[in-house]
Write a structure and sequence with these properties.
Two copies of one chain form a homodimer. The first copy, chain A, is built from five helices and ten strands, in the order βαββαβββαβββααβ. By secondary structure, chain A is of the alpha+beta class. At the A-B interface, helix 2 and strand 4 of A face helix 2 and strand 4 of B.
């Protein structure tokens, strides 16, 4: 049975998140319905990461096994046609060995968090960024962020409903840059805990506002206590950019 | 009476265009309502360019005279508050001499047209780009575009309802670049005819598809005949980026 790797872009706004939930519109559910419409049988689609409600993806990856063999491009075009009512694009389909697992074969996940640091309204980027009106010191945010790099117990930056067995993760990158009123936070790791990126970003905004020093951020990490976390950044600024294998 | 210069971003989707129209939602109308709500009297807002229905702006410029003197930042914040139901952002307010005219003082207008050249669906850029599924040769488009640079009679690329007195315009820049599946067309001139950018872009897509050569494009220009134009590109890919004074 051929295994297919799908690279997927979506606007997270209308979805309850990646994962199937009863009576809710999920990205996974929309994809499974499109696959079933093409091949006439129910098929499980496995994603690399369970993005939360409202979180976007530029390059989510999923795999599925389909009894029928499709040329990759035909499967991509057919899935896109069936997905058209949804803001979901299947950007690429590849035929992969059956050892490929979207979730477990992933070597690195790359996320982007977009802040717009402006007192003005949002217009073209409504639903695409977190608007923070108070002036943020992006350099201070970047410097503080480096205190989170490496292998740590990230309990402070972990949703209380996170199901990972261990709170230990190795953070490879957490860069904060400003371009005009756009502040972009780029981060990568083999894997992240539930809400980890949004928890780190919200805490970095406290640093940018001058409410926290870099030492305060490091102390929050060391506390290994969810109550020590800053605000959790809202979902619409977060993008799963790429999954490396 | 102080004169204010406004720099404005908007999502063109919900509007009948920049210009006031009876019983329609226009950007100009929304701005005038916001100014009136702040200063308690009807005020005319004059724009640098009349963007069509669905066309976006990153940096539209307008001016207005208000009897009451506001600090620039307070006017910006107040207008943004009153505009909040609309995807309109007043990015900057400046107090300018009364000789400043948003439309007539403009030295150069810069537009961007965004194409996404993909067979996949759109997701995050729905309403923000023109999706063209057939593979486009961006280098051929760029080379042909240079045939339009300079002073010409642009009747071929002019909407039949255009009210400009002369069809002569001087085109300063028309650059086509590709980055992955994004094709960006950047153009500037002191001013443009009605639908000129979209008419040039649609004709360039014919070049990119191999349907027209650069000579065909030059012949269309030389024909000075609206019927010689290629397809007119749809509005949602067009952005008024900046107006220079």
């Amino acid at each position: 049975m051929p295994r297919y790797k799908l690279t997927i872009e979506y606007d997270g706004a209308p979805f309850c998140g990646w994962q199937l939930q009863d009576n809710m519109l999920s990205v996974q559910g929309a994809l499974e319905a499109a696959v079933e419409a093409m091949c006439g049988e129910p098929v499980r689609v496995h994603g690399a990461g369970r993005t939360d409600a409202g979180v976007h993806a530029l390059g989510q990856v999923a795999h599925c096994d389909i009894a029928k063999a499709f040329p990759a491009d035909r499967l991509r075009d057919g899935l896109n046609a069936h997905l058209r009512p949804h803001p979901i694009a299947v950007r690429e389909v590849e035929i992969v060995p059956e050892t490929f697992e979207a979730r477990f074969s992933a070597k690195k996940r790359h996320y982007l968090y977009r802040i717009k640091n402006t007192r003005a309204n949002l217009a073209l980027d409504i639903g695409r960024v977190w608007r923070v009106p108070r002036r943020l010191d992006a350099e201070a945010m970047h410097a503080a962020a480096q205190r989170l790099i490496g292998k740590h117990d990230f309990t402070t930056f972990r949703d209380t409903e996170c199901q990972a067995k261990s709170p230990e993760k190795t953070l490879d990158q957490l860069d904060v840059t400003r371009e005009g009123d756009a502040i972009n936070i780029v981060t990568s790791a083999r894997s992240f805990l539930h809400s980890q990126v949004r928890s780190m970003v919200g805490s970095l905004v406290w640093v940018g506002e001058g409410r926290w020093s870099a030492d305060d951020l490091a102390a929050a990490l060391a506390a290994c206590n969810r109550a020590a976390c800053g605000v959790v950044a809202p979902p619409q600024g977060l993008y799963l950019v790429r999954v490396e294998y």
